[in-house]
Amino acid sequence: MKLTELSLRHFRNYEALDVSFGPGVNVLLGENAQGKTNLLEAIYVLALARSHRTSNDRELINWQADNAQVLGRVEKAAGTTPLELDLSKHGKRAKVNHLEQGKLSNYVGQLNVILFAPEDLALVKGSPQGRRRFMDMEFGQMSHKYLYNLTQYRAILRQRNKYLKELGTKKQSDMVLLDVLSDQLAAYGAEIVVSRLTLLNQLEQWARGIHEEISQHRETLRFKYATSLPEATLTDVDTVYQALMNQYSERREKELYQRTTLVGPHRDDLKFIVNDKDVSAFGSQGQQRTTALSVKLAEIDLMQDQTGEYPVLLLDDVLSELDDMRQTHLLTAIQDKVQTFLTTTSLSGVAQKLIHQPKILTISDGHIAVDDEV
Ligand SMILES: Nc1ncnc2c1ncn2[C@@H]1O[C@H](COP(=O)(O)OP(=O)(O)OP(=O)(O)O)[C@@H](O)[C@H]1O
């Protein structure tokens, strides 16, 4: 899929912008603090109805305005779809084909994006929370079912944790509601765990091939889903459900004491194993970067496999973080198949690695000048 046009009204430092993009590489060129990342963020927001930088939508609206608009046209094999997102202090409204969507989960998935930012290089070394977020964002875009289960799971988890906090002051008979909440949480939790295992299994196949190539066949990458559930139970939804229920009852005392839910997909993690060693603990910085890059590139293939369309790739200032060999690998892998937006403060080093002429958009103080000549 391609994002052919984008219009912004009062979004961050863009007062009014109407721009069209090329089908290949679009270079967002500019000095610091001119609006390069804001533009990538607008594309991300158009895709996911939320920002990757802030959970406060107010920050997305220009300081002088009360509301913001992000509009885009997405081209797929099946046709062109106009998307529209209105942000105001009262909330957000999302439209597909000019029709307002009651649920944001029906909106998400029209435009699929993969964002690669310097923080993603920390995917391997960073916190388990970052890896869970990675799974949820990517799988949520690919699968409506995943997004739905995740939304339900989070809502029940909030309720259950609130209830566990209140239970300290209540009587034993109140355990009935806790049992009901445990049952619902285990049902959605089991769906999430099984979807993650299935999608990770596929992602691993792609990532392994890419990692092998970048490491010149010296390294083999493997994923391991880290969970408190016994390995033997990770087979199907019913078995995982039962395993979660068992753990809730085994840990009831501890959960009541700690007043929070201690098991489930919100506590799980993903480990990356290179040549049989956990790369977050034992890998060099280079191995960790290669792993992160392989995983990101594998996502492109997985998304194509799941949705029938290649996603749009957003590269926020990552080239400067990669060495020459990894830069070449990245730019070679994306050419010809993926529409890409990359931010940079300088063209040197980028243009030579691209076979086709990129579209250059020079950004200065929330304005864009288009120049097709490199
Ligand atoms: N809500 C807002 N309203 C108006 N301006 C904003 C808003 N939010 C951020 N800005 C401005 O946007 C600019 C930052 O833009 P952006 O983050 O896109 O920088 P960049 O071009 O990617 O730079 P760098 O290369 O340093 O990352 C800053 O000047 C900031 O003051």
TrEMBL record:
Query: At which positions is ATP bound?
Result: G30, E31, N32, A33, Q34, G35, K36, T37
- GO BP: DNA replication; DNA synthesis involved in DNA repair; double-strand break repair; SOS response
Can you tell which superkingdom this protein's organism belongs to? Answer: Bacteria
Identify the Pfam families for this entry: SMC_N (PF02463)
Q: Which residues form the RecF/RecN/SMC N-terminal domain?
A: 3-345
Sorted keywords for this record are:
ATP-binding, Cytoplasm, DNA damage, DNA repair, DNA replication, DNA-binding, Nucleotide-binding, SOS response
Q: Where in the cell is it found?
A: Cytoplasm
Molecular function (Gene Ontology), one example = ATP binding
Similarity comment: Belongs to the RecF family.
The protein's job, in short, is: The RecF protein is involved in DNA metabolism; it is required for DNA replication and normal SOS inducibility. RecF binds preferentially to single-stranded, linear DNA. It also seems to bind ATP.
Q: What is this protein called?
A: DNA replication and repair protein RecF
Identify the species of origin.
Secundilactobacillus kimchicus JCM 15530
